[in-house]
Write a structure and sequence with these properties.
2 strands; single chain; mainly alpha; ABC transporter involved in vitamin B12 uptake, BtuC; 76% helix
Length: 318
């Protein structure tokens, strides 16, 4: 899909053109501009966002023991998004959105917003010493709607040019991707993904009752907090560069488990790969199928994700 996306668009390139340009065998300024300034940053960013959201979804489903858990459905995306819109609102006149300082700061605001959303959701979902799965889902949908409404309200208070950018961003879009956006995600991926992978085997134990886990000497609440923080960090980094893209964290773990089984050592990397595939493919559809008009990638993923969510919901009830 990366190769297909590099070759196709408003300016079509052959496979030979792409290879010769990437490996510097042919220095064509037009090809350099199309590949290195427009298409490659967008593809790499889509891959990084899909990778992060896929892994975050696997972690959330693991610690909540709920196959319907997803950063978007649980409201964590909306919380991170609302915090970043708040950042845009207060610093719109002082800071260049495309500048390095703004791009590196946005994930921190997203982390605070994601943590706030997660804290509220988990407080309302806590029942008799454990998290109630049904309450978790319903509370997440309600909190997500609330944060989404707050972000929309703030965007309506912005200047016309800023409002347009915020609206497209809220829908989930990577059309303005650049290498700085990718750079802002690198530290989060390098720090958080190894932590998740190191603790992947613990996610297998989370499928047991908490009493059984404690009898094995596992510090359940501490490990749950660490894994929750890492997943929120990955979501926040993604939301800061792509806006609110939902359903990747829902679909990727289910597809990965069908491919490699239920052991999280194998599931985590495959979740990342499936997430990459979903976002890169959806972005390709968003920019080509409706050309010359381009729709946000989040809308394309939602078109796929909503029926899949309903299917899983019916399966869960059955």
């Amino acid at each position: 899909m990366m190769v297909v996306s590099l070759m196709n668009g408003a300016y079509t390139l052959s496979a030979e053109d792409v290879l010769r340009t990437v490996f510097r065998l042919d220095e064509n300024p037009d090809h350099d501009l199309v590949i290195f300034d427009f298409r490659l940053p967008r593809i790499v960013l889509a891959g990084a966002v899909g990778f992060s959201l896929g892994i975050a979804g696997a972690v959330l489903q693991g610690i909540t023991r709920n196959g319907l858990a997803d950063p978007g459905i649980l409201g964590i995306n909306a919380g991170a998004g609302a915090a970043i819109v708040l950042f845009m609102f207060f610093f719109q006149s002082q800071m260049d959105y495309g500048g390095l300082l703004a791009i590196m700061t946005q994930p921190l605001f997203g982390l605070v917003g994601g943590l706030a959303a997660a804290l509220i959701i988990f407080l309302f979902s806590w029942r008799n010493g454990s998290i109630d799965s049904q309450r978790l889902l319903l509370t997440g949908i309600a909190i997500g709607s609330g944060f989404g409404a707050f972000a929309l309200y703030l965007s309506l208070k912005m200047k016309a040019s800023d409002f347009e950018m915020a609206t497209v961003w809220i829908s989930g879009s990577i059309y303005n991707a650049n290498w700085l956006f990718i750079l802002s995600m690198v530290p989060w991926l390098l720090i958080l993904v190894p932590i998740v992978y190191k603790k992947a085997s613990l996610l297998d134990y989370f499928q047991l009752e908490e009493g059984s886990m404690k009898s094995l000497g596992i510090k359940v609440e501490r490990e749950k907090a660490i894994l929750l923080l890492t997943s929120i960090g990955l979501v926040s980094a993604s939301v800061s560069v792509s806006g609110s893209i939902g359903f990747i964290g829902l679909m990727a773990p289910h597809i990965a488990k069908r491919l490699v089984g239920i052991k999280h050592r194998q599931v985590i990397p495959v979740c990342g790969a499936v997430g990459m595939l979903l976002v890169i493919t959806s972005d390709f559809i968003a920019k080509t199928v409706f050309a010359p008009v381009e729709i946000p990638v989040g809308i394309v993923i939602s078109i796929i994700g909503v029926p899949y969510f309903l299917y899983l919901l019916m399966k869960e009830k059955a």
